[in-house]
Amino acid sequence: MTRRSSDYNAGDLFGELYLAEDTAAPAAQRAFSEYVPGLLLCGTAALAAAWLASQYGFPVILLGLLIGLALSFVSEVEVTAPGLDFAAKRFLQFGIVLLGLQVTFAQVMALGWVAFGGLLLVMLGAFGAAMITARLSGQSREAGMLAGGATAICGASAALALYGVIGKDRLDQARFSVTLVGVAVASAIAMSAYPALAQLAEFSDRQAGFLIGASVHDAGQAIGGAFAYSDAAGRDGTVVKLARVAMLGPIVALVAVWLGGSGAKGIASRGRAFLPWFIIGFLVLLIANSMIDVPAVVRGGALDASKALLLLAVTATAMRSRLSDLLEAGWSTLLPVIGATLASFAIAFAVASLLL
């Protein structure tokens, strides 16, 4: 059955329903069987992405995006919509919550004030560069927020969390999907290039760890790139990267407050709380992980579950995007990502060279 244009993207990462009331039952009244086709399709695509990543060493999130986009024609099939919408929204939210078990306040403080101040400078520079580039290229401030936050914090995970606050009414899913592709590609390139550049600059292990941990977007790729330089650089890079991940909650909260006061379409005017529940959950787990000794097996399981849930969310989101909208968005959508990536590398390189 072909869907009407008004029925596309029935649910988005902001948790709103766009189906007409007479064409679908509320999500709470759906039977489990209605979710099965979309969940099976999304799960199969995600498994294919994971297998290809394990065989060829390609970034799994990027593969999930590309496979999802290749299957985006399923957005015209009503039977898959409930499951894909559920995966895109709920799997995202629970995946973000579980990230809270991967970092503690002690790890952030272990950086020292100089390195932590330099890291904040890198993050502010990335965010500011994305906002400026978005404005110069005629894009909205929300596009700059999305690209800047994803680059400054932890890549696709941060982009998904930020889009959960920004919402489809402010930034369409086509531009969101293009931004996700750009962030994933930039992170993959950085993981390979930055250790080589640190080697050419004759950086110490501490300098290299800071450079890679502070400027590679994806957490796994940042840590992997740092360990590719040396074990000591890997340990330092891991701490730096985890400190960036710890900033996910505060930055998403600040963006939510900023948007909440931006007029009739703000979050406050919708009757919603400024801070999404999944960011509260992330902060609760971060605090708990900082106060008690969570077993390593629990943290490892939570990390694996978070990666799987975020992969499913990314794949489902790509499937819900229409290629025609992606083409209409244009590759200029990538300019804020490029600007933020270059700025974060330049500032991180300067901090590593001059202050560490």
From TrEMBL:
One Pfam assignment: Cons_hypoth698
Record-stated family: Belongs to the UPF0324 family.
Keywords: Cell membrane, Membrane, Transmembrane, Transmembrane helix
Cleaved signal peptide residues: none
Transmembrane segments: 35-54, 60-79, 116-134, 146-166, 178-197, 242-261, 273-292, 331-355
Entry superkingdom: Bacteria
Cellular component terms per the entry's GO annotation: plasma membrane
Topology term for the membrane: Multi-pass membrane protein
Coiled coil stretches, renumbered: none
Compartments it resides in: Cell membrane
Protein name: Membrane protein
Source organism of the structure: Aurantiacibacter marinus
